[in-house]
Amino acid sequence: MPRHAIDKVRVRNALEPRESREPYWGAPIGPGLFLGFRKLESGGTWIARQRAEDGGQKYHSIGHVDAVP
Description:
Low-confidence stretches: none
Largest sheet: 4 strands, antiparallel
Strand order of the largest sheet: 1-2-3-4
Strand content: 35-45%
Order of helices and strands: HEEEE
Number of helices: 1
Shape: globular
Structural class: mainly beta
Distance between the termini: 28 Å
């Protein structure tokens, strides 16, 4: 799974919306913690992913971002 510099506005603006709901993932922000960005036609949504103790993944939507000019 490739990582993207989603912390940069120009990178997020250049991303294409995906047919699937899979976000673009950035570099890990801690052990088992990742921040992703789901690109929409207008803006996008920030998604957090955490590795659970049982080895699975937990996802949490952080919030919507409007398009940045």
